[in-house]
Structure formats: structure tokens, C-alpha cells
Write a structure and sequence with these properties.
There is one protein chain. Mean pLDDT is 88; it is low at 1-10 and 369-381. The strands form five sheets. This protein has an eight-stranded antiparallel sheet with strand order 9-10-11-18-17-16-12-15. Strands 2-1-5-4 form a four-stranded mixed sheet. The protein has a four-stranded parallel sheet with strand order 3-6-7-8. Helices cover 37% and strands 20% of the residues. The structure holds adenosine monophosphate. Keywords: Ligase. GO terms for molecular function: acid-amino acid ligase activity.
């Protein structure tokens, strides 16, 4: 069984899916073969030589090569980036550049080496996903276009001459993508590459509205971006409609590429403008996406993990359209695919791709548990031991941290994500995404994971429903400026119906807000509640921020190098600057009034 051809482009979807069956059946052999190839190719590199002394034995590899995070290999990568591009530091194969990770989930953007082969494998993931979508929805490229919010980010050239670009930007630059763009997407090339994200968003939405009768798929990489797009229309529809009516784009769109694209697409269309005005001026925006783009079959966007927080609002706007989380990938590799694209976001299980990288799994000490809403919670993220488990030997029900060894020079590398194995497809594990390993909130010895925070907020925000309010975005912060420290949760809230009567801090019912604080405390893990009881942690605080505060946070991260396409609002913030952005926009503060915490 050869490994390489497995994910290579096969134009008809049935043969791609047949190959998927083969690789998931032969997972064990493929993994062994892949590790063998990586080690024999790279045994003489400076990095592996130091641990393996030229040997390629798998047991020795596991015994001698350390489990590492990005920080451990950063000095090696920095040397490659700073001028030793062609030397055998981490791998023998020549690099074609670096992927720039988003940097919002794990701190600073990371530089991940890429080779021609690893770039191909990443591209093939898109092919595989497309094949699954054809199986479920038919070939939509024959009947319409995709309105996807896509944002390219300028490349950075390293001193060695290698380019560092976001994985998404690299994909947008591919000639094969540019060839299909005008036929299959509503966004012209110039709008995707426009450096001003506001102008880019405005134009992509404008062109999506103009081509509304052709749109069959709506999406973006992450759910937060789709939601931001809808809200952008909510705040700017009059102007968008006026542009469509007159056939003239607003003066503040100064980007020459965007203006050029508009000159080709925008013609006066008062009939369409009136229709859109009618739709947008309705009182409730529930189901607005279906009304604006009536032929849409699904929303293609990642809704799992940190994105789960956006799904309720997205469902409200999308009026029953399926939300399809297609795959799980990171700058380090194409890891898994969702074989059941129609499953609800909270039920999504990804199936690992055994031929892209070599996997090991570090078991997590306490099992994750699944709550009544099928959300996986993780109470502690300490490892059981340092013995890793191979791909085919993982156990359903157990949580693991993922390690990868990739053909592009990463060895026993912690991706930083935690998953829970749910079962197997053929001989290959399937999992639910649990959260980032390093996103832990803590003010004393306790650690609260991303999944814990997600669950606590999900339970508390329900209390806003009767008030006609929606929690639109949130993040958290461990405040240790006074003793004992306490958890701060920043909330951006808006009224459900339109945005005409914006709530300000004074209008929020303090009783309900305090109840939200208590509800969060009650749903946090045992250690938190025990520490609260013993006053080792002070009362949880909700800081309500002005509308637009999280937009400002996004701008901050993007201006610091994050890719907008890959942006994920951090569940927990640690940087002072990011904190100042939110703190300067606080309109009200509420504390949990509880002195005793419920024993769950
Ligand atoms: P980046 O750092 O930009 O490469 O982003 C990769 C990270 O995004 C992963 O390590 C995950 O934490 C997150 N991610 C990617 N795909 C998914 C998914 N399908 N569900 C949840 N989180 C995801």
C-alpha cells in the first residue's frame, strides 16, 4: 500500500472516497511506513542525529527523541529562517516556505516548515472534503457559486529568503485556485487580497449580495467570521443597498483592486436594491441568511471547539441551514475529516487521516466527561504518564493530547489540542475536539480548561434569553491583582431584535447578571468550587463591554500578525495589551453574590 497517491487529486469523488476507505482500513501499516520513511530520510539531520545517532528504529525514536512544544524547536526554526534554509537542521528535503499559524489560539504566530509534499497533502484535504460534500449535496459547482469570506494576509520574507504565509493565503495564491475563482466564488481575487479588512469585508458582502441568485454555499474557515459577516450586513445594509441601487461603490472604498472589481460587477439595479431593503428592514433577523440567499444549501465553516460558542447565534440567522464543520487541520498538518457533514455541531466527530503525519497520543489523567448537551468537558489536563499510544491503539472514551511527527521536520511535536476518542471508522480513530491544551485559566493551583469555560458560559447565557438579549462574544482572564484572585469573564451583549435600541450597561438587570455569575461558578469544576468555598478564589466577575469591543480585539490581533481567515477569538487572554482593549470598553461589572457554592 503506497502512501503518497492516497490523498492526491482524483477528479471523481467516488474514487477519492474509495481511497479514504482504504487508508482508514490500512491505518496501522500506513503509519508504520510513514514513520519509517520520515526517520530514514532524516536520520542524519542535526536534530535527529543528536538523539538517534543515525539509527531509525521506532522504539529508539520513542525512547530518545523528546516530546516537544513549539518553544523547544523554535531555536532550530529560527536558524533556518535566519539564513540556513538549505542545511539539514530539521529535515533533508528542501523547504518551500513556512506556514504562519494564526497565533490567536496559542499566543505568538508560529513558523511551521513546509515542503512541496506537505503543501500537497494540505491541498488534498480540501479535495477530500469536497468529495464528501458532493456525496451529500451533489456537485454544487455545476449549479452555483460559493460566497465565502476569505482574507489573504501579506507574506513575510525571512532573512533566508523563504516566505512565511498563512496556510489559507498560500492556498489562495495557487494558480489552480485562481483559475476556478471567478466561476465558483462570488469574491473577486482583488477583494480577497485587499489589505484593508473592512474594505475587503464590505466588497465581498456587496458582491455576494449582487450574485445572490447564484449563491449555493456560504462560509468561511471559522464560524466567528461568518457571524461577523452577517452582523456587518446588519450594520451596513442601507449603504450596501444604496450602492446596488446607484451602481456606484461608496467613496470610502479606496483600494484600487476593490474599485476595479466593482467597476466590472456593479451596475445600477434598483429592483434588487428594493428587494434587499425589504428583506433587511424586517423586524427580526431570524433566518435572514435564507432570505438573502434563497438557494443556499449549507453553511461551510468550522463550528466545533472554540467556535461552538457562535453556533446558537449562527443558527438564529441561518434559519435551519446545515452548519457543516468539514475538517480539523492546523498549520502543522491536515489531521482529520468529518465523514458526516450533516451532523449537528455538538455531535461532530472527526476521522483521523493516517497518511498525512505520524501520530502519537498522550493520555490525559482524568477522563473527559460528556454532559447532557453532548459537550465534552475536561476537568484537568495533566497527563497520565509520558507513555504515548499509537494511532490504532487509542481507547474510545479517553482524552488525549495529539503529538505529530511530520515529513516537514516536526518530531513528537505537541499540536496543543486535546481530543476525546469516540470510536473507529474502519481501523482509524474518530474523535470530538475538546480544546486547546494551553488555554487554561487559573488564579491559584486550579486549572480551568477551554472546554470548562465554554460549558460554564453556555449554561449562564441561557438566562439572557427571557430579556431578549444575546451573548455575542466572550473571553476570560485570571485577575490576580488582588488577593484572592478571581475569574473575570468579558461579555459583549446585544438585543435579539435588530440593533436599534442598543443596551447599555445601566439597562442590564443586575439581578440577572449576578445570577449569570453564580450560574457560571456552579457549573465550573470541583476544584474551582472547593477553592471558592474556602475563599482561595474570590467571586467570579462578568465585565460587560461595549458593542464592537471584540471587533477592536480582532483588529489588535490582526495588526500583530494574526491571519483574519484563521482568527479565533481567544477563550482566555493573557496579554496586557489585549486586556487593556477590553478593559477600556467596560460598561458594567457584576459579581457573583454567592458566598457558598453549590455541591454538584
Ligand atoms: P492555526 O494555529 O492557525 O494553524 O490553527 C489551528 C488550530 O485551530 C488547531 O490547532 C485547533 O486548535 C483549531 N482548529 C482547527 N480546526 C478545528 C476544528 N475543526 N474544530 C476546532 N478547532 C479547530
Amino acid at each position: 500500500m503506497t502512501r503518497k497517491p492516497v490523498l492526491m487529486a482524483a477528479n471523481d469523488y467516488e474514487s477519492v472516497l474509495k481511497m479514504l476507505e482504504e487508508i482508514t482500513t490500512n491505518a496501522r501499516q500506513i503509519q508504520e511506513q510513514l514513520l519509517g520513511e520520515i526517520l530514514s530520510k532524516n536520520a542524519e539531520t542535526e536534530y535527529l542525529q543528536g538523539f538517534l545517532h543515525g539509527q531509525t528504529d521506532k522504539q529508539l525514536f520513542k525512547k530518545n527523541v523528546p516530546i516537544v512544544t513549539y518553544d523547544h524547536i523554535k531555536p532550530y526554526i529560527d536558524r533556518i529562517a535566519n539564513g540556513k534554509a538549505s542545511s539539514d537542521i530539521l529535515l533533508v528535503e528542501p523547504l518551500i516556505g513556512f506556514s504562519l499559524s494564526s497565533g490567536t489560539s496559542g499566543g505568538q504566530p508560529k513558523l511551521i516548515p513546509i515542503t512541496a509534499e506537505s503543501a500537497n497533502v494540505t491541498a488534498a484535504l480540501g479535495n477530500l472534503h469536497l468529495s464528501l460534500m458532493i456525496k451529500h449535496f451533489g456537485d454544487l459547482s455545476q449549479v452555483g457559486k460559493r460566497m465565502e469570506l476569505l482574507f489573504a494576509k501579506p507574506d513575510v520574507e525571512t532573512p533566508s529568503g523563504l516566505k512565511a504565509s498563512a496556510v489559507t493565503t498560500r492556498a489562495f495564491k495557487e494558480s489552480s485556485f485562481q483559475a476556478i475563482l471567478p466561476k465558483l466564488y462570488t469574491s473577486p481575487y482583488e477583494t480577497i487580497f485587499c489589505p484593508d479588512t473592512k474594505q475587503s469585508t464590505y466588497c465581498q458582502l456587496l458582491f455576494g449580495l449582487i450574485q445572490r441568485d447564484e449563491v449555493v454555499v456560504i462560509g468561511s474557515i471559522f464560524a466567528a467570521t461568518v457571524l461577523r459577516g452577517i452582523k456587518f450586513i446588519e450594520n451596513n445594509w442601507q449603504e450596501l443597498c444604496s450602492n446596488i441601487k446607484t451602481g456606484k461603490i461608496s467613496d470610502w472604498i479606496t483600494d484600487s483592486g476593490c474599485r476595479k472589481a466593482a467597476s466590472l460587477i456593479l451596475k445600477p439595479n434598483p429592483k434588487l436594491a428594493d428587494l434587499l431593503e425589504d428583506i433587511c428592514s424586517c423586524k427580526s433577523w431570524e433566518g435572514i441568511v435564507r432570505k438573502l440567499w434563497p438557494k443556499t444549501k449549507y453553511i461551510g465553516t468550522v463550528c466545533t471547539g472554540a467556535m461552538l460558542q457562535f453556533t446558537a447565534e449562527l443558527e438564529f440567522y441561518c434559519g435551519g441551514l446545515p452548519l457543516v464543520s468539514g475538517f480539523y487541520a492546523c498549520s502543522e498538518g491536515a489531521i482529520a475529516i468529518n465523514l458526516e457533514p450533516l451532523s449537528k455541531p455538538s455531535d461532530v466527530c472527526y476521522t483521523i487521516l493516517p497518511n498525512t503525519v505520524y501520530y502519537e497520543f498522550l493520555p490525559i489523567k482524568e477522563d473527559c466527561v460528556t454532559d447532557s448537551q453532548n459537550q465534552v468537558q475536561l476537568h484537568t489536563s495533566r497527563h497520565k504518564d509520558t507513555e504515548t499510544v499509537d494511532l490504532v491503539n487509542v481507547k474510545p472514551g479517553q482524552c488525549y493530547e495529539i503529538l505529530i511527527t511530520s515529513p516537514a521536520g516536526l518530531y513528537r511535536y505537541k499540536v496543543g489540542d486535546i481530543i476525546k476518542v469516540t470510536g473507529f471508522h474502519n481501523n482509524t480513530p474518530q474523535f470530538q475536539f475538546v480544546g486547546r491544551q494551553n488555554v487554561a485559566l487559573g488564579v491559584d493551583m486550579e486549572r480551568t480548561s477551554e472546554a470548562d469555560i465554554l460549558k460554564a458560559v453556555a449554561e449562564a447565557k441561557v438566562l439572557l434569553d427571557p430579556l431578549g438579549l444575546i451573548l455575542t462574544e466572550y473571553t476570560s482572564y485570571g485577575d490576580t491583582s488582588s488577593t484572592p484572585g478571581h475569574y473575570v469573564i468579558f461579555w459583549e451583549i446585544k438585543p435579539k431584535e435588530g440593533n436599534s435600541n442598543k443596551k447599555n450597561g445601566k439597562e442590564l438587570d443586575p439581578k440577572v447578571m449576578e445570577e449569570c455569575c453564580s450560574k457560571m461558578e456552579d457549573s465550573l469544576h470541583f476544584t474551582y468550587r472547593m477553592y471558592r468555598k474556602e475563599n482561595i478564589i474570590a467571586a467570579l466577575e462578568i465585565r460587560v463591554v461595549k458593542q464592537g469591543a471584540f471587533e477592536a480585539l480582532l483588529d489588535y490581533f490582526v495588526s500583530n500578525g494574526a491571519s483574519l481567515s484563521q482568527y479565533k477569538t481567544p477563550i482566555c487572554i493573557k496579554s496586557k495589551e489585549a486586556l487593556n482593549i477590553l478593559d477600556s470598553r467596560v460598561i458594567a461589572k457584576f459579581f457573583s453574590p454567592r458566598t457558598t457554592i453549590q455541591d454538584n
